Amino acid sequence: MPVKKLQEEVRSFNARRTLLAVVLVVLASFVLATVIPEDTFNAEAGFGGFSVIPAVFLIVYIFITKRILEALALACIMGFLMIAPQTGPLNTPNLVDTLNNFSTGLFDTIQSDDMVWLFFVCGLMGSIIALIEKSGGAKAFGDWISKKAKTRKSTLLWTWVLGIAIFIDDYLNCLTVGSSMAEASDKHKVPREFLAYIVDSTAAPVCVLIPISTWSVFCGQLLETNGWAPEGQGTSYFIQTIPYSFYAWAATLVVPLVIIGVIPIFGPMKRAEERVRNGGPLAPADSEKIDIKAGQKLQVPDNPKIINFALPILVLVGMVIATAPLPMFEDFDMQVGTLVTMAFIFVFYLAQNVMSAEDYWDMTVEGLKNMLMPLLMMVLTFTFAAVNDQIGFTAFVIESASKGMTPALAPLVIFLVLTVTEFITGTNWGMYVIALPIVIPLSMALGANTAVCVAAVISAGVLGSHICFYSDATILTSAATGCNNFRHSITQAPFGFLAAGIAAVGYLIVGLLGV
Fold it and tell me: Above 70 in pLDDT, residue 480?
């Protein structure tokens, strides 16, 4: 059946037919888990080639149905069926153990340090954004931008500059820039997909190009843990990778070239432009489900002040920087930064009488509620990544690609292979935890430049998170800009692949030159 006819069939599904499709997928997964030989599983290597099945299913299901939450849940079940002991009737997977594993996986993900941090920080970031909106600060900032940037190009270039300026953390970057620039870009009839592309491409890429960021701290710690950087010198060794983070450089620099027209808008993004040009909506269909400002009808002060936008953001950025000990900025505490900013907003806004204490708490709760959909999606993403680790998907792909690898081709192969795994798993930092312990000793054994190979891993994480439908970068950027995350990923992908092509050429050249 042709793809278009199949997609039309999916769109015409009623509730019962959808239920039937889900039941068939679960039954097929059950049968698959039954026929996989028991001796295939290895505690270290996982299921070998069988480990790619849930990943392939996930991508195909999303492309056909565009239902990402459903796809992630089914892919998780498929993975947990594979690792369930075959103690059921006729040597089939034990369904009770499967459900227990799924429940435990969700529970472990939700109570993990990373997810608790995400709920806390991203939830409060949603509250901060809602409070700034209520104070009129966002409107005042949009009006100020409109006066400074009177054309479409200048407005989008301002978005790019702001994305570079807020380099401390990609979450802080995309949530702040995306939500604050939406109104200004709307005035120039910019499709939300285009705004999301600019915001996303100046968030994580900039964070890996500047050694004073949460990414540099995290990666530096991994470089020490995995034996390349001596203790206390993780940041110094991370700096060595910056010149070779080719994807981050390319992604950041391609954006202004697209804005000013040197690189033409093409692919799905061009169709988004045509939709808006022909009088269609600025945001693609179903964007309200993830938009953190959807449905808000706020009464803002008659004379909104830009200081109500600027000071809270400056306090937030300043406090995040202040938590990092000098001289090497060894750690950043977004959690403290968001708490202090919430306290500052309470005092600052109530002192001006721009809102009451009741308004403050109402908007705090509203902001938290607005972040629930993005956070739910990340819970399922992290759970899927965890079960993928258990069945050995990433390790299998890396080890398969490393066979016969030469020093000259190592950076290119590492970049391409990990881009694929990151596109499927959607967890950039999680991929680093798995890949760097393999790549660092592998590069040393091959005699390849370890800094270049580590940079290839970092670049793959950034690229994969950009083009993955359900990565944290895609989800939060979509939430902040009010853009359906599937459409954001699809429209951004061609420009991501363009930057990836430039990066691939760079890794091939430095590998062949033995740099």
Answer: yes
